[in-house]
Give the backbone structure.
Amino acid sequence: MRVQLKGLKRTTKTLADGSKKEFFYLRATGAPIRGKPGTPEFMASYNSAVATTRAVHSGQFRAIVAKYKASTEFTKLATKTQKAYLSYIGRIEQEFGSMPIAAINDPRCRSDFLEWRDGMSATPRAADYAWTTLARIMSWAKDRSLLTQNPCEKGGRLYSGGNRAEIVWEPEDIRKLMAHASPAVMAVVILALWTGQRQGDILRLTWKAYTGRAINLRQSKTNLRQSKAGGRRVSIPVGETLRHFLEGLEKRSPRILVNSRGRPWTEDGFRSSFYSACAEAGINLHFHDLRGTAVTRLALSGCSVPEIAAITGHSLKDVEALLDAHYLGGRVELAEQAALKLESRFGESAGRDF
């Protein structure tokens, strides 16, 4: 029976005489493993390298990072969120992995972490994400008495790009995109406009979710207090326009939305195609802005806050905050609707003087 040894890597090198030879080493430290695989010498060398690595790392920050990645705090995150975290955790381990835990417990170390974050100021959003990830690991470790302090509390942000909630796609933006985007890309955009759902949930929609009268789905977005299956369920009634659009799509896959080759979109693949089309059209908008645009369209159509929340899956509080603070401030259409309602209730047409 062959046993898979954790952290063992193999490489093949060409010797001076032209022959090839396999070499084995421990991935974490690069320590060579001597002997032939399967022999007592090989196993003794492997076990010795692992024991040495554990002894070295046990008092280092990388040991805390390893425990965090194995914790439910991390493993219950959505797969996409885990992937994003791991990209920043890799940077953190490279910079601070060998830092002694005792040094982290010294209040003076905060300046080291801030200096590292500020060194990424050329990409402020990435710097903020890296800092947030580091702060979360520190907080988790402090809560479990692995650290006596969290030196990354309240570090502020470098990025100040404003709140995108106030940004919506105007009809002219949609027309520009249609002139440059493929039908496969526009199909995703259209479904976003009529459902108000997130990109990932839209791309994962299957034909089974469409009943002919409604689209039923469970939203996938989660947070640390929710399980992966804890997203909100929504049922979106399908009107004539959306039904005509859906029934005009060719069923080339169990997924409703497919790329130009008839294969289900990957999020990375769609993102690349979408933003390429936006660049060609001269549009500086994000896909997520379509979600806010859907809220705006529903409100301008006379929908109430509960009605909007029932379709988009927002909480009532979130819908109210979005409409009040961002989407409808200064909208001429809404002001005109309000003026007409006021006139019909209190104006001359209603038999009143004032």
About this structure: The chain has a mean pLDDT of 82.
